[in-house]
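Most newcomers find our protein records easier to grasp once they have seen one. Read left to right, the backbone structure tokens trace the chain's path through space. Nothing more is needed to start thinking about how sequence determines fold. An example says more than a description, so a record of this kind follows:
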Amino acid sequence: MAFSIWKVGGSLFDLPDLGRRLKSLREERFPGEAVVVIPGGGAFADVVRQVDQVHHLPGETAHRMALQAMRISAAMVAQLVGEELLDDPTMQQELARQWKENNPAEPKLAVWDVIDVWDSAQASLEKQWGEIPTDWSVTSDSIAAALAWHWGAEKLVLCKSIDRPANDDYQAWADAGMVDRCFPRMASDLPSIEWINLRAQ
């Protein structure tokens, strides 16, 4: 059974039919697959950036606040697709294992709150990539990529508001501001990365 992680960009949160688009995308292009949605921080994270710019918060503080913004986004997106939000790392790992092993557990479009697993998986992630910064160079792009590796997903799907770049040069993506600065480090270890302009669906 295919198992993929979808990072849903916060720039898409102004789409009135975002929930419908996500469900339609899975039904039409990823039928039968288990899909885990990790939403970006969107406007909630933008507020954190603004506060940080004014008050020059310690990097760790701003990073933790941005993670909380992702938690708010996840709760919202779970409501939009009509699924219960899952935040328990043990249950997340177990579901990932079942999907990878083709267990008959029903595949679904799931939305996961990843703050707790991001914290608990740090030792494993840093063993793979070295120290991971706690600043704005690590946003939901890198978090989704790192957790896709952590769970052993077959692919990472980046749902964005713009078309896919012409090439697969992840560093060029980061230099152009299309993904965060740490993304190329994580992306190089993933088996497959797809890019979908969800506004065009």
